[in-house]
Amino acid sequence: MTVGLVVVSHSAKIAEGVVDLAAQMAADVRIVAAGGTDDGGIGTSFEKVQQGLSQAESGDGVLVLCDLGSAVMTAETAVEFVDDPAAAVIADAPLVEGAIAAAVSAQGGADLDTVRAAAEQASAPASAPAAPSAPAAPSAPAAPDQSADQVSRTVTVVNEVGLHARPAALFVQTAGEFDAELTVNGADASSLLEVMSLGARKGTELHLTGTGPQAREGVDALADLVASGFGED
């Protein structure tokens, strides 16, 4: 079971598009579109949102994301009719970025509060993307750095399109599997938006660091994932 998502938009096409995009990052998460009016027009529908809440619920709660003010009001009304008020919450987050961040967090097994926080983090200004490093000449792998409190390793991005959405989502999901604080070029390796804001392209060097009980396992897993090209051709 995972936290479910409901995407509420004035446009059915927008809601469906956001669901399609988020689902690419989170195959195991129930993500339901609740867009447009009952007759297919522009607007929102209490019945659609209520049905979406029911369909998205798998036992761990539901997060609702909305596009415009009246969509929030419709969602608030629908949430009031949920048997357990704590089982459905509305995120104060941008629709697209918030849905993607929430979906990745839910895919990783996070609880409702954590998934909501991931979505709402999308409202924070992203740091300026790091300038991509020039592709390095092939060389023998350097020995991982290690100290008493921190482990680190540097790896070069090899897949053609770099850390775009799908690889970044896989990177973040992998980081969440370990009991460690992991970073990549200073960004939180468990935050999809921070990882994507790096703008890492093919040839970019990623400096991975970790602290905590599973720091070495986490850093090695992330480095191996990057070195494998994320399974892309």
Number of domains: 2
- End-to-end separation in angstroms reads 32 Å
CATH homologous group name of the largest domain:
Phosphotransferase system, mannose-type IIA component
In N-to-C order, the SSE pattern is: EHEHEHEHHEEHEEHEH
Description:
Strand 1 (4-9), helix 1 (12-23) and strand 2 (31-35) form a beta-alpha-beta unit. By secondary structure, the chain is an alpha/beta fold. It has helices spanning 12-23, 46-56, 69-80, 95-107, 112-121, 165-175, 192-197, 215-227, and strands at residues 4-9, 31-35, 62-66, 88-90, 145-146, 151-156, 181-184, 187-188, 205-211. It has 2 domains: 4-121, Phosphotransferase system, mannose-type IIA component (Rossmann fold, 3-Layer(aba) Sandwich), CATH 3.40.50; 145-231, HPr-like (Histidine-containing Protein, Chain: A).
